[in-house]
TrEMBL record:
GO cellular component, one term: plasma membrane
Family note: Belongs to the binding-protein-dependent transport system permease family. CysTW subfamily.
Official protein name in the record: ABC transporter permease
Cellular location(s): Cell membrane
InterPro entries assigned: Bact_Polyamine_Transport, MetI-like, MetI-like_sf
Keyword Transmembrane appears in the UniProt entry: yes
Keywords tagged on the record: Cell membrane, Membrane, Transmembrane, Transmembrane helix, Transport
Length: 269
């Protein structure tokens, strides 16, 4: 009876937390369909603000820039992070392995404001003009640890005897990597890729510091427009970004489930 009561309170608390988190988002999305121009009076359903959003050529250009940054940074971060995870996996000394993991996790635990300010100081000192390149480099930097943390657990689950057996059968390092290690780690690699895209699309704090006057991303643009006044096209844009992020998270979930199923299938065999 006491366990059931505790479970009831736990479920109620969980529902409360989700309502607290998602109510403002759904409130914002709801008014993106308002025929009026304000968020305090819903005067009817309309797609006017979505039409205004897509007809804004500057905004569409920023949207393209945001997706280019997200895709490029995710691809490069996945490549770097995968080989970084392989390097940590192949490290035999425990202390060195822990040290490498600690360095990898620095960007994960550091405040975004500190990271953004550090990149700004670095790019200023070495004379790189703030813009596309600085945003891309910054997004790669904070995405690499995410990829490592997605790929490394998958590698740790792999039976090392598979690699030993492949080498005993005459496989070279390239063949072991391409035919055994990467196929086994593939679900983790894909998960890292999609999570890197999600983090890049949603990032504001770091991007705010390293973007230039002639380049912007959606998060920075939404912030800039929101400061000048309420425009429901911002609601429409925010709703679009929320849906895109949600789709990426769902894809990541199915990849994770598939990886767990393939692992269980391998164990059963």
């Amino acid at each position: 009876m006491q366990v059931a009561k505790q479970s009831k309170w736990a479920n109620s608390y969980l529902v409360f937390v989700f309502i607290l988190m998602y109510a403002p988002i759904f409130y914002l999305i709801f008014y993106s369909f308002n025929a009026g121009d304000y968020m305090h009076d819903f005067s009817g359903f309309s797609l006017t603000h979505y039409a205004a959003m897509f007809s804004d050529l500057r905004l569409m250009g920023i949207l393209v820039n945001t997706f280019i940054i997200a895709l490029l940074s995710a691809l490069l971060a996945t490549l770097i992070g995968t080989f970084g995870a392989l390097g940590i996996y192949n490290t035999r000394q425990k202390n060195l392995k822990v040290t490498l993991l600690s360095f990898n996790n620095v960007l994960m635990v550091s405040p975004d404001v500190i990271i953004g300010a550090s990149f700004l100081i670095l790019f200023t000192l070495i004379g790189i003009k703030l813009g596309f390149l600085t945003v891309l480099l910054s997004h790669i930097a904070f995405s690499v640890p995410i990829v490592v943390l997605m790929v490394l657990p998958r590698l740790e689950e792999m039976d090392r005897d598979l690699i030993t057996a492949a080498r005993d059968l005459g496989a070279n390092s390239q063949q072991v990597l391409s035919r055994i290690i990467l196929p086994y780690a593939w679900p983790g690699i894909l998960a890292g890729f999609f999570m890197a895209i999600t983090y890049s699309l949603d990032d504001f704090a770091v991007t705010f510091f390293v973007t230039g006057s002639d380049f912007s991303t959606l998060s920075v643009e939404i912030y800039s427009r929101a400061r000048t006044g309420i425009d429901l096209s911002i609601n429409a844009l925010s709703a679009l970004m929320f849906v895109i992020s949600l789709v990426l998270v769902v894809v990541y979930y199915f990849i994770s489930v598939r990886g767990i199923r393939s692992k269980n299938t391998g164990v059963m065999r």
